[in-house]
Write a structure and sequence with these properties.
alpha/beta, 276 residues, 14% strand, globular, Rossmann fold
Length: 276
């Protein structure tokens, strides 16, 4: 079990360690150490409701890497990664800059512990550039203003918008479909959206229990159906093979040594990439 951070570190930045945060729960499920007792407790309760709860985070990371590699190979050299989470190499800039060292990436998250580790997200290749923005996905105008203020991305050229495992933490009351629409409206033609999202299609009762566990801890988790997730891609040109359970999305782009994929019900996450 991970050790709690020292009190002096926690007082420099308000980490709100008394309640779980999705980024830190995700870190724990990936085997990371940047989490606290409240995060571990929430994760353990989730594992009790669904013993396969460690599988979706791993599959999301693998999908993220494949999607970034795909976009970089299409010539996309700018990425906006919203809901970055705690750094877990290889990060977006590692993958993108391996294809094109000139790639530029802006990471966005609203968890103070991600800010505390932002240096790990800023180790850019000298020919490229990375930046980090502390912003909330639900406030699109403020988020975009902060991203533009960095000067890292050129919004007159295509951008790869990455929304990986973040929208199921946005409740319907915040209209996540409108959020995605507004983000895409800020990007030029030729941009791409890469998105993944938890679904209850395969294990509805288990995911309902997990969502309730998170709600009791003050964290929104709203799994959605395939039809609801498809709505995020309305008006976009979805690239082959379309919306898939994550391991089925371009597995040929995976890293050597990847284990045989888990079953659809174990993963319970859909993902796709689409062109604006």
């Amino acid at each position: 079990m991970a050790e709690d951070h020292q009190p002096d570190a926690a007082t420099r930045i308000d980490l709100r360690t008394d309640r779980p945060h999705p980024a830190r729960v995700y870190d724990y499920l990936l085997g990371g150490k940047d989490n606290f007792a409240a995060d571990r407790a929430a994760a353990q309760k989730g594992l009790e409701a669904n013993p396969d709860s460690r599988i979706p985070p791993r599959q999301n990371r693998l999908f993220l890497r494949r999607a970034v590699r795909f976009l970089a190979e299409q010539g996309v050299d700018q990425f906006l990664d919203i809901g970055t989470g705690i750094p877990s190499a290889p990060n977006v800039h590692h993958v993108a800059q391996q294809v094109d060292p000139r790639s530029r990436i802006v990471y966005v998250d609203n968890d103070p512990i991600v800010l505390a580790h932002a240096r790990a997200l800023l180790t850019s290749h000298p020919d490229g550039r990375t930046d980090y923005v502390d912003a909330d996905l639900r406030d699109v105008d403020a988020l975009l203003a902060k991203v533009r203020a960095t000067g890292t991305l050129d919004f007159d050229r295509p951008v790869g918008l990455l929304l990986i495992a973040v929208l199921h933490f946005v409740g319907d009351e915040h209209d996540p479909w409108a959020i995605v629409e507004r983000l895409l409206a800020a990007l030029p033609a030729g941009s791409y959206l890469a998105l993944s999202h938890l679904t209850g299609d395969f294990r509805p009762e288990a995911w309902a229990r997990i969502a309730e566990v998170y709600r009791r801890q003050g964290v929104t988790m709203q799994v959605r159906s395939r039809q609801q997730i498809e709505r995020f891609f309305t008006g976009l040109d979805v690239v082959d093979p379309g919306l898939q359970v994550l391991p089925a999305w371009r597995p040929e782009l995976g890293e050597p040594g990847d284990q045989p994929p888990p079953s659809d019900d174990q993963v319970s996450v859909y993902g796709a990439v689409a062109r604006v």
